[in-house]
Amino acid sequence: MENLDVVVLRKLHEWRAAGLRAMLVTVVRTWGSSPRPVGSIMALNELGSVVGSVSGGCIEDDLIDRHTRAYAQDADSARHAHSMPSGPPSLIKYGISADEAHRFGLPCGGTLELLLEFDPEPAALRDLLTRLEAGQLVQRTVRLTDGQVSLLQADAPTELSLDADHLSNTFGPEYRMLLIGAGQLTEYLATMALFSGFAVTVCDPREEYRGAWSVAGARLVSDMPDDVVRDFKPDRRSCVVALTHDPKLDDLALLEALDSEAFYVGGIGSRRNNEARRARLIEHFDQTEASLTRLRGPIGIYIGSKTPPEIAVSVMAEILAVKNGVTLPRDMAVAQAKNERDTPHHAPDDLVCGLPSRQA
């Protein structure tokens, strides 16, 4: 599944290029609880079609009612129906009163402010999409007096900013995930990554595993993992996860990934397996404890998972937390939780280390 921002922008460009009137809606401020974060976007055309979201649906319905002909019931009402405004961007707030919060399905006390851009220029939208498709991180700035748009390549993601004159929002290429190994766990993790908006590449030189691969939408390659990591060129919007349990495949790939800007690098395995991996990398590949600081393992958060789909949920949750800049409590780390859990009445998972049916 594509990055949601790209989906919205592409559909908006399609509408505008076809001559339809449309607007781009951006969440620019929130107070209290809010259904969607600052920077979220949606697009709406004059016929009432919507892509993306800024709430749970009620605000979208109100925008359709205010700005399109979609709710006109007959010819007479159509003549008097609201039509898409034109002119410079405008700001609108929802949820200021308790009644509005209830009406629009906002959490108690929630308020959000939206910027409405009317009839964005197709050429500027196409330019933005071209840059994003080329892998650029782009800062889009809108002049509030007239809606004029400027695009600049950005060096790093930044928070949305709004002042009296301009709105600036950063759009980036989709997040990418490289998975080493095409086993059953990988199928579940790849599926979750796809519906979370990641572009997924799976690498496995073993023909018997590639032959059983069945996840549509994930790119499957057969080269050696370390070569694939180099060609993948992980950046700050990339993660690399080794899932084969085979040191010949996992170790070199992880070393290459640690030498990149990937925001997440981790390998499957029990506590004992991960300790053995770190010892190998230090002994045979001149690594140090400091150079392995970014290497995650055991990967995932502790949810007591036993089966491949449960382990995939655990790993995906940790990846999303790191992506979103959330610091997880220490007792949610797999190793920490299992160390505290182990008592004379609990056999350590190290006794069955390497089995894919145990949490990473």
UniProtKB/TrEMBL annotation:
Residues 338-349 have a biased composition (Basic and acidic residues). Residues 337-360 are annotated as: Disordered. This is XdhC family protein. It holds the Pfam family XdhC_C. Residues 15-73 form the XdhC- CoxI domain. The lineage of its organism: Bacteria, Pseudomonadati, Pseudomonadota, Betaproteobacteria, Burkholderiales. Gene3D superfamilies: NAD(P)-binding Rossmann-like Domain. Residues 177-319 form the XdhC Rossmann domain. It comes from the Bacteria. Signal peptide: none annotated.
